[in-house]
């Protein structure tokens, strides 16, 4: 803020369209509307939105981001504006007490063990909060030079000796901005637990990467394995033997799960799995009984540090049942690469997750660099309130920042009828050629884990790779990128819409983008399985079959592609090469929704190599 009390813009000048977007934000939140705003990467959306919110005199903002890493750029901007802020993300990732040998407990185990540790005075970090000045914590958080929210949380524990989560939560009351991950708005139990006494209508909500709301129902997805059921059965028999009805249910459910014949993901009737469970509160009581007994054992054997080792398989079953018992949830079975059967409970309509929060907040700003058609977008979300739409490209003549060159490789595809050893080898040879000719980091994005593994195993031995797995650590990936030798070439192999595409910033210690080549292998169409068919059916029942097909088979896949491409251009000085490895990108509908020019369409190795050399010279400047 300036000395006059007016909001000061912390940059020397405005980028094209920024001032206009800020004014739209000010007007929309002042009138209690939803603003749907689309602007390209590098536009400076965050700064423009913060300026608009401050100009409107907003008292409380809940600024939502998808991942922990996405907290960091928002915090950097808030510091430039001198705003009062705090941030929240997964408490278990901040906790200095509960991780055991670097292994994080499950969410259920973490919060159950945390409650016991606090109640018994066994957590010295929480105990010290009572004697810590809140203003001192606020000054430390807002003046800390760390560029990582995760690092800052750990520094609070290390240098202040207090629980970072509850220290940051303690700043909510006097903060104008609370920067948090999606669950803090879209999971009611989390909102109620950590933002009370405030209610939804106390906040203006800003949702970054708001195209993700089209699949926000996956936030509530919960899965348990046959192994989880068997472990829970053993646990209840040992620690709560009087729970006869629940033991019978676990025996019956384990037997049913072990008898399932699953190839791809399969839709199941969920009612037989709920029979005999009239009150989930009874299951919750059983979980707490088991946890209390295990905690007493751990405390007597190892002291306070032992609480972090307490695990309760039964708590996973309770969480799964909590989702399964929802009126709008469905049950699927899936067999993973290790042939382990999983039971997946999930809703399928995003409106059942976002409608109520977005209708109850004071106002909302939905931001994206890859926003689909606003008409379809709002129809899918199902929100009934006044809205305003801003497209920076159409309204202010703003173009995407940076320069790029697009090559379409029209001699390859991941279409099901064409998959096989020869096609996987051809794709691998193209990636290897790009790696040999082009400098630095490359991101190769695949439609599924299966396709990725088939291609990666056929890459030449001299191609250095990072390969996404379901349990991959983002911190390890970022460390590998930052510590690579100068000039070292690496191909990062990731799944469309997965952790590496959405959750990692490919930047150096000074924030400079390190990624200049993105290879999209195939089109990330959904698998032709029961999940896709049921999702289409559920959406068609509300928005109509035509729009449902467009959402499932066109909009969602292309959003994943655009998000992956956007990783290579984060600012006006960036240069990038896009390689679309599938002839289906020549389809008119895909090309229109993707919305980028194609500079070369190639067939054959020689044509591909010549296009790479042209792009390398013209765009990458090497």
UniProtKB/TrEMBL annotation:
<dbReference type="GO" id="GO:0006281">
    <property type="term" value="P:DNA repair"/>
</dbReference>
<dbReference type="Pfam" id="PF06733">
    <property type="entry name" value="DEAD_2"/>
</dbReference>
<keyword id="KW-0238">DNA-binding</keyword>
<dbReference type="InterPro" id="IPR027417">
    <property type="entry name" value="P-loop_NTPase"/>
</dbReference>
<keyword id="KW-0408">Iron</keyword>
<dbReference type="InterPro" id="IPR006555">
    <property type="entry name" value="ATP-dep_Helicase_C"/>
</dbReference>
<dbReference type="GO" id="GO:0046872">
    <property type="term" value="F:metal ion binding"/>
</dbReference>
<dbReference type="InterPro" id="IPR006554">
    <property type="entry name" value="Helicase-like_DEXD_c2"/>
</dbReference>
<dbReference type="GO" id="GO:0005524">
    <property type="term" value="F:ATP binding"/>
</dbReference>
<keyword id="KW-0004">4Fe-4S</keyword>
<dbReference type="InterPro" id="IPR014013">
    <property type="entry name" value="Helic_SF1/SF2_ATP-bd_DinG/Rad3"/>
</dbReference>
<dbReference type="GO" id="GO:0003678">
    <property type="term" value="F:DNA helicase activity"/>
</dbReference>
<keyword id="KW-0413">Isomerase</keyword>
<dbReference type="GO" id="GO:0016818">
    <property type="term" value="F:hydrolase activity, acting on acid anhydrides, in phosphorus-containing anhydrides"/>
</dbReference>
<dbReference type="GO" id="GO:0051539">
    <property type="term" value="F:4 iron, 4 sulfur cluster binding"/>
</dbReference>
<dbReference type="GO" id="GO:0003677">
    <property type="term" value="F:DNA binding"/>
</dbReference>
<protein>
    <submittedName>
        <fullName>DNA repair helicase Rad3</fullName>
    </submittedName>
</protein>
<keyword id="KW-0234">DNA repair</keyword>
<keyword id="KW-0227">DNA damage</keyword>
<keyword id="KW-0347">Helicase</keyword>
<dbReference type="InterPro" id="IPR010614">
    <property type="entry name" value="RAD3-like_helicase_DEAD"/>
</dbReference>
<dbReference type="InterPro" id="IPR045028">
    <property type="entry name" value="DinG/Rad3-like"/>
</dbReference>
<keyword id="KW-0067">ATP-binding</keyword>
<keyword id="KW-0479">Metal-binding</keyword>
<keyword id="KW-0411">Iron-sulfur</keyword>
<feature type="domain" description="Helicase ATP-binding">
    <location>
        <begin position="4"/>
        <end position="277"/>
    </location>
</feature>
<dbReference type="Pfam" id="PF13307">
    <property type="entry name" value="Helicase_C_2"/>
</dbReference>
<keyword id="KW-0378">Hydrolase</keyword>
<keyword id="KW-0547">Nucleotide-binding</keyword>
């Amino acid at each position: 803020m300036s000395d006059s009390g007016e909001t000061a813009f912390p940059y020397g000048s405005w980028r094209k369209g920024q001032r206009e977007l800020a004014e739209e934000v000010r007007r929309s939140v002042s009138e209690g509307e939803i603003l749907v705003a689309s602007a390209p990467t590098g536009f400076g959306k965050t700064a423009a939105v913060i300026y608009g919110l401050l100009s409107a005199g907003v008292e409380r903002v809940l600024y939502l981001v998808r991942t922990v890493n996405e907290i960091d750029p928002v915090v950097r901007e808030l510091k430039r504006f001198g705003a009062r802020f705090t941030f929240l993300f997964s408490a278990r990732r901040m906790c200095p007490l509960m991780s055991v040998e670097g292994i994080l407990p499950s969410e259920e185990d973490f919060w159950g063990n945390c409650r016991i540790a606090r109640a018994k005075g066994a957590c010295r970090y929480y105990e010290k909060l009572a004697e810590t000045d809140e203003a001192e914590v606020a000054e430390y958080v807002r003046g800390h030079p760390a560029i990582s929210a995760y690092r800052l949380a750990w520094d609070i524990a290390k240098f202040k000796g207090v629980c970072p989560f509850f220290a940051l939560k303690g700043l909510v009351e006097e903060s104008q901005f609370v920067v948090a991950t999606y669950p803090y708005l879209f999971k009611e139990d989390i909102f109620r637990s950590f933002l009370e006494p405030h209610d939804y209508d106390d906040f203006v909500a800003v949702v970054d990467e708001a195209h993700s709301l089209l699949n926000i129902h996956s936030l509530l997805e919960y899965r348990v394995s046959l192994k989880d059921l068997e472990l829970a059965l053993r646990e209840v028999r040992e620690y709560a033997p009087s729970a006869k009805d629940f033991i019978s249910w676990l025996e019956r459910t384990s037997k049913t799960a072990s008898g399932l014949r699953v190839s791809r993901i399969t839709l199941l009737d969920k009612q037989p799995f709920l029979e005999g469970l009239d009150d989930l509160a009874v299951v919750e009581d059983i979980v707490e009984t088991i946890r209390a007994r295990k905690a007493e054992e751990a405390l007597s054997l190892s002291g306070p540090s032992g609480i972090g080792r307490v695990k309760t398989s039964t708590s996973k079953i309770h969480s799964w049942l909590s989702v399964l018992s929802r009126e709008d949830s469905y049950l699927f079975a899936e067999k993973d690469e290790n042939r382990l059967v999983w039971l997946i409970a999930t809703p399928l309509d995003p409106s059942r997750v976002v409608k109520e929060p977005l209708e109850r907040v004071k106002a909302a700003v939905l931001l994206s660099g890859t926003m689909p058609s606003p008409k379809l977008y709002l129809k899918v979300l199902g929100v009934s309130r006044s809205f305003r739409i801003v497209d920076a490209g159409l309204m202010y003549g703003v173009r995407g920042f940076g320069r790029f060159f697009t090559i379409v490789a029209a001699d390859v595809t991941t279409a099901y009828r064409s998959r096989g050893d020869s096609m996987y080898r051809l794709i691998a040879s193209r990636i290897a050629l790009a790696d040999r000719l082009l400098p630095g980091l490359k991101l190769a994005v695949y439609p599924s884990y299966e396709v990725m593994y088939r291609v990666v195993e056929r890459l030449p031995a001299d191609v250095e790779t990072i390969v996404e797995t379901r349990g991959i650590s983002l911190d390890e990936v970022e460390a590998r990128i930052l510590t690579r030798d100068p000039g070292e070439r690496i191909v990062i192999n990731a799944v469309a819409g997965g952790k590496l595409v959405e959750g990692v910033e490919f930047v150096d210690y000074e924030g400079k983008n390190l990624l200049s080549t993105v290879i999209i292998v195939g089109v990330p169409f959904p698998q032709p399985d029961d999940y896709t068919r049921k999702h289409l059916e559920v959406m068609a029942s509300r928005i109509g079959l035509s729009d449902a097909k467009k959402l499932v088979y066109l909009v969602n896949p292309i959003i994943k592609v655009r998000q992956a491409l956007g990783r290579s251009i984060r600012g006006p000085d960036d240069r990038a090469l896009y390689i679309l490895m599938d002839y289906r990108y020549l389809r008119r509908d895909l090309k229109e929704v993707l919305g980028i020019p194609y500079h070369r369409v190639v067939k054959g190795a020689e044509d591909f190599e010549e296009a790479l050399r042209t792009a390398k010279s013209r765009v990458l400047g090497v």
